[in-house]
Specification:
Order of helices and strands: HHHHHHHHHH
CATH topology: Glycerol uptake facilitator protein
Helix content: 55-70%
CATH class: Mainly Alpha
Low-confidence stretches: none
Structural class: mainly alpha
Distance between the termini: 29 Å
CATH architecture: Up-down Bundle
Largest sheet: none
Number of domains: 1
CATH superfamily: Glycerol uptake facilitator protein
Shape: globular
Mean pLDDT: 97
Number of helices: 10
């Protein structure tokens, strides 16, 4: 398996399990309906861990354009591979969203509310103030990138196979601590590609895909990832 296919599969698993847990909590008649934020954040954390475990040995398990760009900016990843990784991540996220839609086909017609169907695929702000929403996404992704580099730099977890799980715990902590304002996208592919799937799929009563907000969970994570990586390298030198 090459790195393109690995990143595609990893990001597909990420979105399948991550958007899947949101669908389980939000959609009507699901056995997990109304089980809450703790379930969503835990599901996303485990989605990240499983995805990195699945493909990390092949592609490094970036599964996030913000991570790929942050690593390239700090010379930890070759720039010539960036387009390939980003294409794989966006395509994988799109496919993962389609699989979630298929898995919950019986539940879409029974669920009322356009926003409920939208948040399964992409993030929406709790309070819509775009500059502040952008700041939240920047802060969360800054900490994500800084934390990932710190975890990877510790060789002991890598040797014992715990690194992907620790990255999952980091995502869990970020979701619990900083996810409330925006839904913690922290990943342009995870938000933009499923948003496109929402726009294209024949979901009854789905409403608009909120393209006016779509730039926030793209720009915020990219800036946060770049500066988080640069800050880690500047402080610790590697």
């Amino acid at each position: 398996m090459n790195s393109f296919l690995a990143e595609l599969v990893g990001t597909m698993f990420l979105v399948l399990l991550g958007d899947g847990v949101v669908a389980a909590v939000v959609l009507a008649k699901s056995k997990a309906e109304n089980s809450g934020w703790m379930v969503i954040t835990t599901g996303w954390a485990m989605a990240v861990a499983i995805a990195v475990y699945a493909v990390g040995r092949i592609s490094g398990g970036h599964i996030n354009p913000a991570v790929t760009l942050g690593l390239a900016m700090t010379h930890k990843f070759p720039w010539h591979d960036v387009p390939k990784y980003l294409a794989a991540q966006f395509l994988g996220a799109f496919l993962g969203a389609i699989v979630v839609w298929l898995a919950y086909l019986a539940h879409w017609p029974l669920t009322e509310g356009e926003e409920k169907k939208l948040v399964i695929f992409c993030t929406t702000p709790a309070i819509r103030k775009l500059h502040l929403n952008l700041l939240t996404e920047f802060i969360a992704t800054f900490v994500l990138m800084f934390g990932v580099l710190a975890i990877v730099a510790n060789t002991a977890p890598g040797q014992s196979g715990l690194t992907p799980l620790l990255i999952g715990f980091l995502v869990w902590a970020l979701g619990l601590s900083l996810g409330g304002p925006t839904g913690f996208a922290m990943n342009p592919a995870r938000d933009l590609a499923p948003r496109l799937a929402h726009a294209l799929l024949p979901i009854p009563g789905k409403g608009a895909s909120d393209w006016a907000y779509a730039w926030v969970p793209v720009v915020g994570p990219i800036i946060g990832g770049l500066l988080g990586a640069l800050a880690y390298v500047h402080i610790f030198g590697s």
